[in-house]
């Protein structure tokens, strides 16, 4: 059994589905994990926000999402749209019921109920497209087999509970199409595994099925030493160890979801990252290595950062008790901290700037601390840095926070 994962960029247009068809048409024992089409997750997030705010344009937002997918599906399937019309309409009826009945729900629970529909739509369309082009396949609802905890928006897979259902469903020499990113908890409610969580789904299935390998198909030649969308000197990395891939994912490299590596590392299942528009190219191989790699500098950029700085109002020292209070608040408001630094009487942290709970966090902090923050910043990590790489990233920029270790340099820049 092989596991192929196709991200939103690889199915962003009906024409792009031809690439998937070419890649999978000769396979006989394969699980295809698919993300939502292109920017659908962003649009569904906007729908959730509109719903929570009781915005009068909520139904218009939903209609735009439906119109896009309807146009996409009819373009892709041509005369075969009737194969999925009933299921297609059922998905949007479900979404309509959600926004009409649950506007007072918990944000996180509503988010997972709504946003999970993106993968349900993409997998439905892809499965029908393959079938219409003579690739027989079984469409599987991953929520029926992947059981998670109830940490909505960042759920963890319950391995024991998921193992048997996965093995029973993904059985035999067949092609299966299923969804990434989503699951269900023991209460039967939809959960999501964190943004870009389809990689994690693919890795989990590989672990549970003892797969031969996992391939993540991307719109880049492989894992690059920088995102080519903002870096003109990006180069492909040929090989990575599991350990180094985990490090890069931890620091924020977008090519791999942070949870992806551990399940396949446990069983030494190789992971390939390959370009979907050039499937014969080698891409990047991630596997267990018993030697050190001589890697070029790797650049990771996180934009739209907020640098938060707090000081005790009584100018007391910042000791463990104060820091534990701060992290308790970060946990309470579900705010991920990217880097921290503290002195005798101050503590600073760089966090993602689009967190909807930031205002509540600041309000809570001001009860005990003097609070300052800067927004719209960049957070740059350079793995395997040298002087030239640091100069490339920091020249003509103001450094607000800096940390260096033996292999990694990190900067918050304005």
Explain this structure.
There is one protein chain. This protein has 414 residues and is α/β, with parallel strands linked by helices. The chain has 2 domains: 2-287, Carbamate kinase; 298-413, VC0802-like (2-Layer Sandwich). 36% of the residues lie in helices and 24% in strands. The chain has 13 helices and 17 strands. The chain has an 8-stranded mixed β-sheet with strand order 3-5-2-1-8-10-11-9, with helices on both faces. Strands 13-14-12-15-17-16 form a 6-stranded antiparallel β-sheet, with helices on one face. The model has no long low-confidence stretch (mean pLDDT 92).
CATH-assigned fold name of the largest domain: Carbamate kinase
Strand content of the residues, in percent?
A: 15-25%
User: Helices and strands: which structural class?
Assistant: alpha/beta
Q: What's the rounded overall pLDDT mean?
A: 92
* Secondary-structure element series: EHEHHHHHEEHEEEHEEHHEEEHEEHEHEE
Number of domains: 2
Helix segment count?
13
Shape: globular
CATH class of the largest domain: Alpha Beta
Low-confidence stretches: none
Order of strands across the biggest sheet?
Answer: 3-5-2-1-8-10-11-9
Q: Tell me the Rg in angstroms.
A: 23 Å
At the fourth level of CATH, the homologous superfamily of the largest domain is Acetylglutamate kinase-like
- Tell how many strands the DSSP assignment holds: 17
CATH architecture heading of the largest domain? 3-Layer(aba) Sandwich
Biggest beta-sheet profile:
8 strands, mixed
First CA to last CA: what distance? 48 Å
Q: What is the helix content? A: 25-40%
């Amino acid at each position: 059994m092989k596991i192929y994962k196709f991200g939103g960029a690889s199915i962003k247009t009906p024409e792009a589905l031809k690439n998937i068809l070419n890649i999978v048409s000769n396979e006989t024992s394969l699980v295809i994990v698919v993300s939502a089409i292109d920017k659908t997750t962003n649009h569904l997030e906007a729908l959730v926000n509109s719903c929570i705010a009781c915005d009068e344009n909520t139904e218009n937002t939903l209609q735009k999402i439906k119109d896009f997918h309807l146009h996409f599906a009819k373009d892709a399937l041509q005369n075969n749209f009737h194969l999925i019309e009933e299921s297609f309409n059922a998905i949007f009826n479900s979404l309509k019921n959600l926004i009409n009945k649950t506007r007072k729900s918990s944000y996180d629970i509503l988010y997972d109920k709504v946003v999970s529909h993106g993968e349900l739509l993409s997998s439905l369309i892809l499965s029908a497209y393959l079938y219409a082009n003579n690739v027989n396949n079984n469409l599987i609802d991953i929520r029926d087999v992947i059981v998670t905890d109830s940490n909505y928006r960042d759920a963890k897979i319950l391995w024991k509970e998921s193992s048997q259902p996965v093995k029973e469903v993904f059985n035999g020499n067949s092609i299966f199409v299923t969804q990434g990113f989503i699951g269900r908890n023991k209460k039967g409610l939809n959960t999501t595994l964190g943004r870009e969580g389809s990689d994690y789904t693919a890795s989990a299935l590989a672990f549970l099925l003892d797969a031969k390998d996992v391939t993540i198909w991307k719109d880049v030649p492989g894992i690059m030493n920088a995102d080519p969308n903002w870096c003109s000197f990006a180069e492909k990395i040929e090989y990575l160890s599991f350990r180094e891939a985990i490090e890069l994912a931890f620091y924020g490299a977008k090519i791999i979801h942070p949870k992806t590596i551990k399940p396949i590392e446990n069983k030494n299942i190789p992971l390939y990252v390959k370009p979907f528009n050039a499937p014969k190219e080698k891409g990047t191989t991630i596997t267990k290595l018993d030697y050190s790699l001589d890697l070029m500098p790797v650049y990771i950029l996180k934009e739209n950062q907020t640098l938060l700085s707090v000081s005790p109002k009584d100018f007391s020292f910042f000791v463990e008790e104060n820091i534990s209070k701060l992290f308790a608040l970060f946990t309470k408001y579900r705010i991920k901290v990217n880097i921290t630094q503290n002195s005798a009487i101050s503590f600073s942290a760089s966090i993602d700037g689009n967190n909807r709970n930031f205002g509540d966090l600041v309000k809570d902090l001001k009860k005990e601390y003097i609070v300052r923050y800067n927004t719209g910043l960049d957070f740059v990590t350079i793995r395997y840095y040298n002087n030239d790489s640091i100069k490339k990233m920091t020249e003509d920029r103001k450094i607000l926070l800096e940390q260096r270790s033996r292999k990694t340099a990190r900067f918050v820049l304005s």
